[in-house]
Protein 1
Amino acid sequence: MRGRVLRVAVPMSLLAVAALAQTAPPATSTPTPTPAPAEAAGAPAGRAVAHSAEPPLAVSEPLPLGSIEAVAASPVTTGEEGSTRGEFVLAPIPISDPTVGSGLGLTAAYTFAKKDPDDSSPPPVVGAGGFYTSNGSWGGAAVAKLSLKQDRYRLAGAGFIGSINYDLFPAGADREGIAITQEIEFFAGEFMVGLGKRWYAGAVATWADTEVHREDADDNVEGLPIPRDRLDSTLVGLGLTVERDSRDSMFYPTTGSRLQFVANHNDTSFGGDFTYTKTWLIYSKYLTLSDPVVLAIQGGGCHASEGGPFYSLCLFGTRNLLRGYTVGQYLDRWMVAAQAEGRWRFANRWIATGFAGVGVVEPALPRWAETDSLPAAGVGLHWIAAPENLITVRAEYAIGEGGQHGFYVAIGQAF
């Protein structure tokens, strides 16, 4: 494979900063999170730092934890149009998260060279990642994306297996959580067809198996605010995905936009244990303000119908909407968020960013004037690890409401 380039994605200075960063738990002044809806009649409601078992492939999200997403999800992204050189990116990812503790992940991705220089379709991409943290959480993922017939068809596949230790917060509890373990196996496939004028539509199929139990004993479920029949479950879903993508690059867009719609329906008739639908709608716009400065704007929302397990709800902070919050601290059936980010390429291999946004999480369709909003803001520093495809490694710090904050290290742009 001609033109292969080997890059070690994180310089020592960036690793040193990331290794020293520690994300502290939210201060006691943190506002009370939105309680999750009750799972069944008479069952206590719960809010959880939870792990979604059915992410669509349209957006990188094998796990709803910012630092772990960087390890397991980053290779999903595809390369820049017009590239005729293969590139390999290998990145150790430090993890510091109040949910799972500190640890280290490793992610690798390879974008294949294209034989035809006039082929404008994204190059094929394969990747894998894994992580381990101080509280015993671990996981691994493998992903692949392929475009065929001058980008007429798009294929994607992903798999994840892991065991995550975290706290489940019963509704009304103020900082007191129940330590649980959630074991996850997840597989998904996606097929999309080009409809012309940069529109794509297709289907996504997902399968997930998850087991929830207390950390101290596998058979001890006393005190968990979850019905027993929902502790161990299988999810099988079929969904519709629609996308319009006019970005000039999939790694570092400077113009164009991207619209994503995914509706994934899980059903007992497919062989799963629950019947519910989870829907995402996300729109991103990119503007070049000057040669080195790009403005990225994004708005999106999520809706989860009744009938699913607690981890099927809309988790605030997933899909990088927004950064600065512990994922799962706020969750409910509706979530809406908007953010903007300025990106300044001040040197050949370096980019500085600043971002801000606001969101809401509610049991019914949010009305901005009638609900408490959750603002966030932060700054970041990116190093261009693979210049051929403008693949970056980013380190970011974000602050949310009530003293919540987070440090993130990931591959690629946040959106």
Protein 2
Amino acid sequence: MIYGKALGFTLNNPLNMERGKDKWQGMSKEQTHPRFIKFDDIYSGIRAGFKNLLTYRNRGLNTISKIITTWAPPKDNNPTAAYIANVSSRTGIAPNTVLALSDYPRVIHAMIIQEQGSAVPMEVINEAIKNV
């Protein structure tokens, strides 16, 4: 299902994860974009993004500010501060508050809105990450 016309939705990659060495579960065999990963379905794209955020968490990147500064650095996103403020506002979580694991679905939801300009239902996010 496509939730909008933004590139991340057409690639089933609503968090705009970039291609690299990792072979993610649900990653499409044919990669059609030179920069961003294409996934077989939206669940796989969200799941991969969540797993990436868990890796961040294990490295101590456990606040909205730390996550977004790494996910969308100033060299790629100007201004990164606006991205942080938007995610913080949408989640109701202060930028420097250490996130509980239960906060991550809301953070993902807010990041998808920031990245794509529209949302994915929370039910889809919860389903995508439930067995991670």
Protein 3
Amino acid sequence: MPADDEWIDDDAGPMVRPYAVTRGRTRPGRADFDLIAIIATHPRGTPTPQTSGPEHQRILALCETPLSVAEICSEMDLGLGVVRILLDDLDSADLIAVRRPAPVTQLPSERVLKEVIDGLEAL
């Protein structure tokens, strides 16, 4: 059995592997979170055993003021994959609201742009 001092590095803090935080999961279950998606805490859901960990609680506290997924990663000092899994847990329990970015509209084709220019020149 390792001594307690082997698990703590004064500079790095407690060492917890990402797979321990996500309980071995490597992908979110049902949702994927874009880096610029905005996350906000809301009290509609009820906490579950899967959402009662310290990382989940920290995300809920951080997102009382809406933050992007990128900002959450930065604040939590966790990788994007880990944060996406934690957000998926919170989303499944209806503890967060997610505002996903609007899809990028497709640009008009070159032909359409040329017709517009030709029409403007004809005026």
